[in-house]
Amino acid sequence: MLITHDTRCALDTVVDLVNTAPENDTAPDGLTDVASLDDFVRNHEVSDVGALSEFDLAAVRKVRGRFAEVFAAPDPGSAATVINDLIAAAGTTPRLTNHDGYDWHVHYFAPGASVADHLAADCGMALAFFVVAGEQERLRRCEAPDCRRAFVDLSRNRSRRYCDSRTCGNRLHVAAYRARRKEAAG
Fold it and tell me: What are the chain's domains?
């Protein structure tokens, strides 16, 4: 599957957005206030976004929840339903653009769209490409029992199981190794 630069950026953005949600009652929300939303927008270079407000924060949190539903969808049809709802509500207006040193690419959000509609349109379309390509199973959650962060498995053989092999994956492999050694020592 060919993934263009703008689609990859949108995928990274949607994964990071989903991962700002608290995973349980003790984890903090990564979008606690307008300042944290502004940081998110700036760090992900979301273009054409004006001044942000509490309304934007609430709307982005709602979109974040819908994106989480896509990562939890049991089948392509369920994922498509959520993605279609997001894209339709955002009022997509595909247009070619070249800005900020990037070559021609497609923006799906309407000019002047809110940050929530911008994210719903561009990120929703990136997720739609995966469903269309029959690759919805690449939209995953970390298999570490104490993690559950979202990620997109871009490995060649679709074998990635953890959000980060250096942290979650390594921690579980070390635990399994220690358990085997303990069992062997008997």
Answer: 5-139 (1.10.3300.10)
